[in-house]
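Our platform keeps sequence and structure together, in a single record for each protein. Nothing more is needed to write down the fold, since each code stands for a local backbone conformation. An entry from our holdings is shown next, in its original layout:
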Amino acid sequence: MSQCPHDPFKKAREEDGVLECEFQGENVPMILRHADVKAAAKDWETYSSDAPFRVPIPSEEDVRSVRQLPIEVDPPEHSEYRKLVLPFFRRPAKPEMIEKMQGLIQELIGEALRNEATEMVYDFALPLQSRALTYLLNVPESEADEWIRWGVHVFRDEEAEGGGGDVLADYIDRAIERTENSPGEDLFSAMHAMEYQGRKLTKDEMRGFANLAFAGGRDTIINTVCLVVAHIAKHPEVLAQLRETPKLINTAIEEFVRFLSPLTHIGRVCPVDTDVHGVSVKPKGRVSLGWAAANYDETVFEAPEELRLDRKPNPHVAYGSGAHLCLGAAHARLVIRTLLGKLSELVERIDVLEAVEHVEGENAYQRTVGYTKLVARMVGQ
């Protein structure tokens, strides 16, 4: 059997449990086994998130100037910050947001069905993610027009017309200023009324929340949508199974994110000298929690290289683990659930006409995490 393109870690996971990787000139050991990753995610004193700009890999000192909240602080501060914005990230359970998501995805699929071909990254997944985010943040849907110009990764998309950290920072500052005196019911307005430890949020704290909201799950949702479309194109039986047994969608959501694992890993910083499964990490050195590798751990998942729509239980860590469980997980699940439902309802098959994979990694591994270009034709039932 050929190596799964989403799991280049099999040999290192089975033999050592850790893989030494070089990122930006720094040796970063990636923890690979499911139990070890979950234990490290829980142990914030040894593997700290209190490291502005260094939690993402590659680090982001060169593209932003504020600490992302709540992801770049440890408990108990993390829990206090998280609680402030949690009501917005629970919005995907609201009937009105579910209805809007269904309408949005039906509209995008309908447009794709009318066209001979659709570039799925920039003309389908990016508008989907951007417009869906307006529902989450409760801002006018027209705001998505500007966000779309930022591209797939707001900090690093070389194909984008108007991306970059400065563009995002300017947008956030304008939104904070606009809502200070004319508040509405959106996230920016709500932040002016929030209190942390008995005081109002500072402007940098507001910027930190907003920065994460726009940058945190942007590329991962876009990549997931494209990877789902490409997988279904190769395996049209998936749509047939979902049409025949609609209740499979609930387990299929979790299996797709486990199997695709669009976020390979995330960083943590060791405050003191630490032995990480035989690899020495100096104080303030980084460690990587390998979500994708853990999701293919053969001791937890039977035949992990197979996508099984009915896999249950499915204790994947695609959305992280521990206190820092992804704030946007419910939003991502709503996007994927609606996408799978509408594809099975409206589409007979998908033909991929051109595909350029987005391969991530440095010398230690190469892994498919999405597409830089994906041209497809959708054929209706």
